[in-house]
Amino acid sequence: MADDHPRGEKRTELADDRTSLASDRTMLASERTLAAWWRTVIASLAAAIALVKIYEEVEPAWAVRAAATVPVALALVILFVAARRYTRTAKRIESECVERVPRAELWVGTALLFLLCLAAGWAVWTLR
User: Where are the domains positioned within the chain?
Assistant: First the structure.
């Protein structure tokens, strides 16, 4: 029965293990959230290009392109908010021994999506 209710050191180890697992879960949740934000960025860019293609016959063309620029701008805002929030969460958990997406990979992914935003913005204004 003593094994069912650990005392002293065993109880402290159990609490440390549970805290460590909670930190791992928090970091994994943050990574899933980052991935969801990145998917939202890609969906916004797809929506922008779809707007231009669906309404390519509508005049004036600049109005369609201006409307399609809104999702591109939204994607840029979402991209940087996502990176900022993930970085803040990672810093708060940094004191724990928790694996996270390395900073280099985070910023490479963010930079690639930023370039994709620029390409989509360019496509919105040059597609015909």
Answer: 9-126
In angstroms, the CA 23 to CA 92 distance is 10
Task: Compute the distance between CA of residue 102 and CA of residue 81 in angstroms, rounded to an integer.
Answer: 18
Distance from C-alpha of 87 to C-alpha of 90, rounded to nearest angstrom: 5
Per-residue DSSP letter, 5:
S
Q: Where are the alpha helices (DSSP H) in the chain?
A: 9-54, 61-93, 103-126
Report the predicted TM-score, pTM, of the whole model to 2 decimal places. 0.73
Neighbours of 76 (CB within 10 A): 19
Give the pLDDT confidence score for residue 40 in this predicted structure: 95
The token duo for 60 is 């004036």
Lookup: tokens for 72: 């591109």
Span between the terminal Cα atoms of the chain, in Å: 76
* Other beta carbons less than 10 A from residue 123's beta carbon: 16
